[in-house]
TrEMBL record:
Belongs to the glycosyl hydrolase 9 (cellulase E) family. Its EC number is 3.2.1.4. Keywords: Carbohydrate metabolism, Cellulose degradation, Glycosidase, Hydrolase, Polysaccharide degradation. The keyword rRNA-binding does not apply. It comes from Solanum tuberosum. The keyword Endoplasmic reticulum does not apply. This is cellulase. Residues 1-22 are annotated as: Disordered. Residues 1-13 have a biased composition (Basic and acidic residues).
Length: 142
């Protein structure tokens, strides 16, 4: 693919909030997940092992089962930054669900510095974050 075609095929990702951007990101994520979760990494296997290690460390941190853990609010929402924290929360919830799927399909489990984590714990974490966003939190009005 020449330089011009490459730029044309990716130019839609430069536009904020364009429908093409979500489609491109979704397709790229799906392709990356297939390589990440399979043994098709080939000569990039060491790179993918590093990503897998980072994913493991991040999930352990979110679940407060690592040496350095992600902060949480008193109500249980993970807290990373003062502004636009929900971007981080929704991404972490999505990644926990996806990582749980990966572990299930690979027949693996998550082992953190403070012990093993069940796949249900990953899904419960994800659900707790989404539930918090949807109103199941200390400030919710019922």
């Amino acid at each position: 693919m020449d330089q011009d075609n490459s730029q044309k095929s990716h130019s839609h990702t430069d536009m904020p909030n364009s429908p093409g951007k979500e489609l491109y990101c979704s397709r790229s994520a799906k392709q990356s997940r297939q390589v990440f979760m399979s043994s098709k990494a080939g000569h990039n296997a060491t790179v993918f092992e590093k990503y897998q290690q980072k994913a493991k460390n991040f999930m352990c941190s979110c679940l407060a089962k690592d040496d350095i853990n992600t902060q949480k609010t008193p109500g249980g929402l993970i807290y990373r930054q003062r502004w636009n924290n929900m971007y981080f929360v929704t991404s972490a919830a999505f990644l926990a669900t996806t990582y749980s799927d990966f572990l299930t399909s690979a027949g693996k489990y998550l082992k953190c510095s403070s012990g093993s984590v069940s796949l249900n714990e990953l899904l419960s974490f994800s659900k707790s974050q989404v539930d918090y966003i949807l109103g199941d939190n200390p400030r919710a009005t019922k």
